[in-house]
Amino acid sequence: MSMKTKRLFATAATLAAACVLAACSPDAGSQSSASATNAGNDAAGNDTTGNKASNCTNTITKKDLPVVTFWGWYPNMQLVVDNFNKQNNEVQVCWTNVGQGGDEYDKFQTAISAGTGAPDVIMIEADRIPTFQIQKALVDIKNYGFDAVKANYSDGAWKDVSIGGAVYGVPVDGGPMAMIYRKDIFDKYKITPPKTWAEYEQAAQKVKDAGGPLFGDLGANVPAVMMALQIQKGASPYTYDPAQPESIGIALNDQASKDVLDYWGSLAKKGLVGTQDQFTPEYISGVVNGKYATYISAAWAPGYLTGAGVGKGKDTGKWAVAPLPQWDSASPVQVNWGGSAFSVTSQAKNPELAAKAAYGLYADDESLKDGWTNQIIFPLNLKALNSPEFVDLKVNFFDGQQANKEVYVPAANAYTGMTYSPFGQYYFDSMTKQISAVIDGSVTGAQAADKIQEDVVNYAKEQGFTVK
After folding, report:
1. Three-class SS of residue 252?
2. Fold match between domain 19-174+338-409 and domain 176-335+420-467
3. Which end of the chain is less congested by CB atoms within 10 angstroms, N or C?
4. Helix residue ranges, H only, 88-152
C-alpha cells in the first residue's frame, strides 16, 4: 500500500468518527433499553461481538440456518428483523444496536482498523458510504442479486448509494425536500406558497413590512440544506469514481454555489430570515410560537417536529407543506436531505448471503407500513412509495393534507441522486464555518464559496488526493 493510499485511509478514519444527524430524524435511533444500545460492548464502549451470532438483540428461532450479523438503529428494527427471519428460509439475521450514527461509525472504524469485529451488514447514511468505501470496507453488491431488486427503487435512490458503476448499499429511507409553512401566518398576511425563490423573498419582504414574523431561518449548523439548494440551482460539488480513488473533482465555488450563498446571506442581512442554529430548544421554541413562517426541510421533518412538541396543543392544525421553491420554475429540480442504506461489509463471512439480508430487510409490506405509519421514515422502496395507501395518506401533522400525494412522492420520484465525497464531513464543517461568517457579515456569499473551495481543495491535497 502506498503512503498516499495510507493517507487516504487515515482521512476516512478521522471522518468516520464524526457524529452526524440521524438518517431520518435527530432522535431516530433511540432505544427503549440501554442494554440494546450497549449490547456487545466492553466497559470502554468497544465492540467485542465481532461477527459472532451469539449476541443478538433478537431471538433467532430457525437455528439450523446460516446467520448474518447486522448493525442498525431504526426504532422499529426489532420488528423488521423478526419479519425478515420469519419469512426467510435461507438465512437468519442477528441484529445488534451498537449506537446511532457517529457512535456506530466509531465502532465500525475500530473494526476496520483491526481487520475484525465488523458485522456482515451495516446501516450507513448515504453520504457516509464513500468514507468507508475508500477504505475497502464495503462490498460492491452488484453481483449479488442486484438485478432482481433494481426495479424496487428509483434511479436516484440507487445513485445515492453508488460510486462509479459500483453499488455499495440498498437504499431504505430518504428525505425529499419541501417547504413546510404556517397556514395561519400565510392566511393573516395573504401569502400563497411561493413557487420560486424570488417569490419566497417577495413574500418574506411583504410579511416583514406588515410587522410579521421571520419568514424562515438560515442555520449554520445545517450545511446539508445549503448544499442541496446549491445542487438544486445546478451545482455539482464533487466528481468521484472508485476506479480512481486518489483523484477527485471539487467544484464548491461555481456560480450556482455563490448565487445561493449570496441569496440566503441577503435574506439574513435584510432581516427576512433568522440565523438560529436548528435542532436546538431555542429554534424549536420559535417554531412552536410562530416565530418562523416556513421551515425548509425534508420528508422526515414532520416526525421530528411532532417528537419535539410542534403541532400539538394550541399549535395543532396550523401546518401545511408545499413543494420546494425553485430557482427556475421552467426547469424544476428536486433535492434530498438525509437517508440511509444497508451495506455489506468486506468482513462479511458470506457476501452473497449478507446481500440477501441487505436486500430483504425493511422490504416486506408489514415493515414498510410500520416504518411510515409509526416511525415516520420516508420509504424509498417503490412498493410503499407508490402504494395508494401511502400516497393518499391524510397526514395528521398537516391537518389532514395529503402531503405525500401533493408534495413528497412527486419530489422523491423526480430526484436524480447525487455524488458524495470521501471527506464530506470536512466539507460540511467548512460550510458551517463560512455560513457563520456570512451571517456575521464578515464575508459575502461569493467570498464564502471561494473560501470553502480553497479550504477543501487544500485539505484534499494534504490527504493525498489529486484534485481535478
Report:
1. coil
2. yes
3. N
4. 102-114, 129-133, 146-149
The pLDDT of residue 7: 43
Predicted pLDDT at 312 = 87
Residue of 211, 183, 209, 178 whose CA lies nearest to 195:
178
Q: How far apart are CA 139 and CA 398, in angstroms?
A: 41
* Cβ neighbour number for residue 434 with a 10 Å cutoff: 25
Residues found in the chain: 468
- Contact at 8 Å (CB) between 299 and 305? no
Cell (9 digits) for 448: 464564502
What average pLDDT does the chain have? 89
Confidence of residue 303 (pLDDT cuts 50, 70, 90): confident
User: Cell triple for residue 398?
Assistant: 398537516
- Cβ atoms of 390 and 404 within 8 Å: the answer is yes
Q: Are 169 and 343 in contact (CB under 8 A)?
A: yes
Secondary structure class of 464 (helix, strand, coil): coil
Query: 285-308: b or e for each residue (b if 16 or more CB lie within 10 Å)?
Result: ebbbebbbbbbbbbbbbbbbbbeb
pLDDT band at 448 (very low <50, low <70, confident <90, very high): very high
* Domain 176-335+420-467: CATH architecture, name and number where available: 3-Layer(aba) Sandwich (3.40)
Q: How does strand 336-344 pair with strand 92-96?
A: unpaired
pTM above 0.90, yes or no: no
Buried b (16+ CB within 10 A) or exposed e, 327-362: beeeebbbbbbbbbbbbbbbbbebbebbbbbbbbbb
CA 52 to chain centre: 29
CA 76 distance to own-chain centroid: 18
Alpha carbon distance 377, 17 (integer Å)? 25
Assigned C-alpha cell, 197? 425563490
Gap between the Cα atoms of 113 and 132, Å rounded: 11
Q: For the chain, what are the domain ranges?
A: 19-174+338-409, 176-335+420-467
Q: What pLDDT is stored for residue 134 in this prediction?
A: 92
Superfamily of domain 19-174+338-409 in CATH is Periplasmic binding protein-like II (3.40.190.10)
pLDDT, one tens digit per residue, over 366-424 is 999 999 998 778 999 999 999 999 999 999 999 999 999 999 999 999 999 999 999 99
What is the per-residue pLDDT across 191-242, written as a single tens digit (0 to 9) for each? 999 999 999 999 999 999 999 999 999 999 999 999 999 999 999 999 988 7
Element (H, E) at 102: helix 102-114
